[in-house]
Amino acid sequence: MFCSLQTTDGAIWFGTQDGTSRFDGRNWTVYTEKDGLAGATVRTLLEDRTGAIWAATNRGLSRYDGKQWRRVTFEDASNQKSGEVTALLLDREGVTWVGTRRGLLQYVGREWRTVDRTNRFRWVTALLQDKEGNIWVGTIHGLNRFDGENWTRISRTSPHALFSQEK
């Protein structure tokens, strides 16, 4: 199991290497690529404001509207079509942030936006919004914070950075 999510209807979803499962308190429903998931491995799950479920998979992004799964397509920062999705976040403003191996995107309304075309956001591993509204983006290259206007890279030399000590 890679992730879990409890939705507003009380159901619990689990992302696994073989798809995603939904438990409503009594019954289990299993969804796989045969049901429309973009890939077999579900890395993270998200519920949006409409109650739709988004699944980040090893082969792209899928969205479940309560009836069926549909593949969500986009172009990432390197103009590559929908690759592996590694992280998801729904921020307070309703913007969906999508982290991939190749970059970071936002889904605003019905429009995709590339956040940055540099290597700063290669291989996004984590997304979080803190209580002040800052967006934190973890990548294999380090940690970044967006305050709504500017990006700050948190380096190993930052006084409050949380990195292991090299010995």
Low-confidence stretches: none
**How many whole angstroms does the radius of gyration measure?**
16 Å
SSE succession: EEEEEEEEEEEEEEEE
Give me the number of helical elements. 0
End-to-end span in angstroms? 33 Å
Largest sheet: 4 strands, antiparallel
Structural overview:
The chain is an all-beta fold and 167 residues long. It contains no helices and 16 strands. It has strands at 3-6, 12-16, 19-23, 28-31, 42-47, 53-57, 60-64, 69-72, 85-90, 96-100, 104-108, 111-114, 124-129, 135-139, 142-146, 151-154. The strands form 4 sheets. Strands 1-2-3-4 form a 4-stranded antiparallel beta sheet, with no helix packed on it. It has a 4-stranded antiparallel beta sheet with strand order 5-6-7-8, with no helix packed on it. Strands 9-10-11-12 form a 4-stranded antiparallel beta sheet, with no helix packed on it.
Short description:
This protein has no helices and 16 strands. By secondary structure, the protein is mainly beta.
What's the structural blueprint in terms of helices and strands?
Elements: E1 3-6, E2 12-16, E3 19-23, E4 28-31, E5 42-47, E6 53-57, E7 60-64, E8 69-72, E9 85-90, E10 96-100, E11 104-108, E12 111-114, E13 124-129, E14 135-139, E15 142-146, E16 151-154
Antiparallel strand pairs: 1-2, 2-3, 3-4, 5-6, 6-7, 7-8, 9-10, 10-11, 11-12, 13-14, 14-15, 15-16
